[in-house]
Amino acid sequence: MPVIGKGELISKPKRVDALDELLLIIPRQVYQNEPFSESICKGWHLYGVEYCLRMSQIGRSVQVLPMTLWHRSDGGWRDFKHDITLWRLIKAYPSIDCIHTTGGSWPASKFYVFWRICGNIPIINIPFILISSIQKNGFLITIQKIKERINLF
After folding, report:
1. Secondary structure (3-state) at 84
2. Segment 89-130, tens digit of pLDDT
3. Total domain count for the chain?
4. pTM for the full model?
């Protein structure tokens, strides 16, 4: 599928891999059969991207429409939670090499996301957070909480 560049003008609907959450139009019957994934997207980030990837996987068309919209975001909001959700997307869709959206593109690589996660956590906080959790909950429960929180395993 050809990649439509960020900011590229189009004159008719174009099939794309995924859209960000600026505006999604989903027929009611489709959404009733295939709601948003609460296990992959546990918050605000990337639920539209996940939905588009899933729709493509089941043979549905994902299209961008030729309309002028302003998404007041420079992408600077991409934080730890965004990266964890991106990790879950890559895990859920292993055949994807790159995730292209109307808001940008990311390599669909666990290595890439791992380094983004590391970059979004102040490294000095990690030992303190772990020690505090182990003292409060014990080692095994702390490991279980980490696994549940980031859904890596």
Report:
1. helix
2. 999 999 999 988 766 788 998 888 887 777 766 666 677 778
3. 2
4. 0.72
Amino acid at 131: I
Supply the Cα-derived Rg of the chain in whole angstroms: 18
CB contact at 8 A, 146 and 138: no
How many angstroms separate the CA atoms of 76 and 45, rounded?
13
Shared domain for 28 and 96, answered yes or no, is: yes
Residues 133 and 89 in one domain: no
Q: Is 142 helix (H, G, I), strand (E, B) or coil?
A: helix
Q: For residue 28, what are its two tokens?
A: 């009611």
pLDDT in tens, 66-79: 887 776 666 656 67
Q: What does the alpha-carbon distance between residue 103 and residue 17 come to, in Å, rounded to a whole number?
A: 12
Q: Is the same domain home to 132 and 94?
A: no
For 131, the domain range is: 123-153
Q: Are 117 and 83 in contact (CB under 8 A)?
A: yes
Residues 87 and 21 in one domain: yes
133 with 151, same domain?
Answer: yes
